[in-house]
Amino acid sequence: MQLPVSPEVAANAVGNIENLVTLTSGQYTMGSLILMVSYGAHFAFILYFLMTSMQLAPRYRIVPIMSAIVMASAGLSLLREFTTWQDAYTLVGASYVPMQGESIFTNAFRYGNWTITVPILLTQLPIAFAISRPDLHKRAIRMSIPAVLMIWTGLYGQFGETGDFSRLNIWGVISTIFFVWLIIEVRGVITAAIANSPPQLVNWPKNLWYYFLATWGLYPIAYALPQLGFTGDIVVVRQLLFSIADISTKLIYGIILSRYLLRRSALEGYVPAAEALETSPLGAKVASQRGD
Ligand code: RET
């Protein structure tokens, strides 16, 4: 068949390697399953975060509420990834062939969605660690600027993955420079958090730092993966990596912050939080004597 445009232009037009690779039915089903589990988990946890906010001291309730917003936003984006995945392939014989027609699969929606979710996730940190207000605003902005630059340079670069690897790598490096800047800003918040956490809870910000590095670090791996080959396994493994990263950096991260804040609320004298944590028979008796 004669292409109306050069192969390079055609390769760029399909955007992501998902549109270049024929999948076995097992790989296609795995892709659907990974995306379905991801959006299902995000939507379900809206409820968890809204309910859990009620156990916290009022000044901390905004933190799980922000997690609920992130869950809704990411859930919608991942639902869209799922439906696009379903539309992008057609069954030919026993294989799922990308149609490269009007409905092509794209990971670019993810990057668009991060523009919203990442600044929210970062702003949760100084609020949860009770950094006082003018400093909190300053730190939120100082983290969000490199974060958005990291995402947009990565968004531009990822279109190179279908063949233009120098575009993928050059913009990948530029994006990584912003990531390093972001990591430095996050470290500043963690250091402040260690300094003002109650002594019993000081391990939480310390451990969260390593958790942050390990989970946010999965995204550049997913970005670089297409260079290992255009195969069905790479396509599926990449979606799996994105999903593990999504569930870790948004959902589990939100649970960690909420559990930290439950303890902190209790230590700061908020009785419903203390009761929620209390497991001893005496504690239960005291709680019931209070009549609630
Ligand atoms: C990109 C491009 C390649 C280089 C680097 C990247 C980093 C991406 C990160 C994304 C984090 C996203 C989160 C989303 C939650 O909703 C852009 C892939 C370093 C760290 C936490």
UniProtKB/TrEMBL annotation:
<keyword id="KW-0812">Transmembrane</keyword>
<feature type="transmembrane region" description="Helical">
    <location>
        <begin position="143"/>
        <end position="159"/>
    </location>
</feature>
<feature type="transmembrane region" description="Helical">
    <location>
        <begin position="171"/>
        <end position="196"/>
    </location>
</feature>
<dbReference type="InterPro" id="IPR001425">
    <property type="entry name" value="Arc/bac/fun_rhodopsins"/>
</dbReference>
<feature type="transmembrane region" description="Helical">
    <location>
        <begin position="62"/>
        <end position="79"/>
    </location>
</feature>
<dbReference type="GO" id="GO:0016020">
    <property type="term" value="C:membrane"/>
</dbReference>
<dbReference type="Pfam" id="PF01036">
    <property type="entry name" value="Bac_rhodopsin"/>
</dbReference>
<feature type="transmembrane region" description="Helical">
    <location>
        <begin position="240"/>
        <end position="262"/>
    </location>
</feature>
<keyword id="KW-1133">Transmembrane helix</keyword>
<feature type="transmembrane region" description="Helical">
    <location>
        <begin position="111"/>
        <end position="131"/>
    </location>
</feature>
<keyword id="KW-0472">Membrane</keyword>
<feature type="transmembrane region" description="Helical">
    <location>
        <begin position="208"/>
        <end position="228"/>
    </location>
</feature>
<comment type="similarity">
    <text>Belongs to the archaeal/bacterial/fungal opsin family.</text>
</comment>
<feature type="transmembrane region" description="Helical">
    <location>
        <begin position="28"/>
        <end position="50"/>
    </location>
</feature>
<protein>
    <submittedName>
        <fullName>Green-light absorbing proteorhodopsin</fullName>
    </submittedName>
</protein>
